[in-house]
Amino acid sequence: MNNMEMLHIVIKNFSKELDLIFVIFLTSLCILFVLIPPLDETPVRIILGLPLVLFLPGYSLIAVLFPRKGDLDAIERIALSFGLSIALVPLLGLALNYTPFGIRLTPILIVLSVFTVSLALGAYVRRNTIHEENRFAVDLGIFFKSMKKSFKATDTKIDRVLTVVLIISIVLAISMTAYVIITPKEGEKFTEFYILGPNGTASDYPTELKVGEEGEVIIGVVNHEYANVSYRLEVKLNGEVIGEKSIELKDNETWERPFTFRAKKEGEHQKLEFLLYKNHFEKSVYGKEYKEEAYRSLHLWVDVKE
Questions:
Q1: Angle of the 105-127 helix axis to the 44-54 helix axis, nearest 10
Q2: Are 50 and 181 in contact (CB under 8 A)?
Q3: In what order do the strands lie in the sheet with 267-278?
Q4: CA distance readout (Å), 87 to 91, 165, 179
Q5: Parallel/antiparallel/unpaired status of strands 254-262 and 288-291
Q6: In DSSP terms, which residues pair with 194 in a beta bridge?
Q7: How far apart are CA 108 and CA 97, in angstroms?
Q8: Count of beta carbons in the 10 Å neighbourhood of residue 54
Q9: Closest Cα partner for 292 from 269, 305, 276?
Q10: Strands 282-285 and 240-249, sheet pairing
Q11: Are 48 and 29 in contact (CB under 8 A)?
Q12: Considering the domain 190-305, what is its CATH architecture?
């Protein structure tokens, strides 16, 4: 036997296992696009990730359990592949939760990939123990004929309708999952605005001071507006501006700084105001100066004694 004949035999054998080769290829490609930058920032990551979660693990398991041609028809293989994948992935995630790795992207990807590839290799071994005529192999022509035959083989119209509904449900479930992942819904838009005591807790505020004594608080702003926002912070004591600050924050960015003020005159219940403006602006309306209202406001009552 010469090299060309050996190569022909190898290609022929591999052509019969195209489905398993495709499973391993897609899984390997998904690992590359999830873990390697800048590939992990492309939409291909999602396109490859969906089959790995929703189809490939179940297909590999079905391939191991049913290696013979007549074990299942085409529709049953597809439906069971989706169903088993949807059942297996949460179980693998639950098992990971009880390990030191936890439910994180990289451990889940590795476990899913090892699980899928191992079953695909196991399916290859099992198929090769079966005579070639009885061995399952993917042939698109035969595949579609098998699907057509499975529809004709149903005993009643109700069976046909249920089969169609099952296929449509699977397609809709995949489409909705892809839509949710690709276009995640935004939550409520808001800005956190808070003041803390000098020790960084919501206590020990400087509410009792002597004339000339300094008080300190910590002011915090957190942007949850799903966009970059320009803020302006204004601090007033008894209506007099004692501090101003412009703040530029990206989405989910936090700004936290200490602020020191001095009590200048004696008096009880002096109002220390913290006013936060979002995209602050001033403009003239009919010759009068107009100023927007504060987006968020906080205050402390301060007693100042001699």
A1: 60
A2: yes
A3: 208-210, 296-305, 267-278, 229-237, 240-249
A4: 7, 20, 21
A5: unpaired
A6: 220
A7: 10
A8: 19
A9: 276
A10: unpaired
A11: yes
A12: Sandwich (2.60)
Q: Does pTM surpass 0.70?
A: no
What is the rounded distance in angstroms from the CA atom of residue 42 to the CA atom of residue 46? 8
b/e per residue 210-245 (b: at least 16 CB within 10 A): eeeeebebbbebbbbbeeebebbbbbbbeeeebeee
Domain chopping of the chain, boundaries: 3-182, 190-305
Residue type, 62: I
Inter-axis angle of helices 44-54 and 56-65, to 10 degrees?
40
Contact criterion met (CB below 8 Å) for 240 and 270: no
- Backbone φ and ψ for 97, nearest 5 degrees, come out as -65, -25
Write the pLDDT tens digit of every residue in 190-228.
999 999 999 988 888 999 999 889 999 999 999 998 889
Res 44: pLDDT: 86
Q: Is 214 in contact with 237 (CB distance < 8 Å)?
A: no
For the stretch 143-197, pLDDT in tens is: 555 555 555 554 555 666 666 676 677 667 666 665 555 555 566 789 999 999 9
Percent helix, strand and coil across the chain, each to the nearest 5 = 45, 25, 25
What residue type is assigned to position 170 of the chain?
I
Check pLDDT > 80 for residue 291.
no
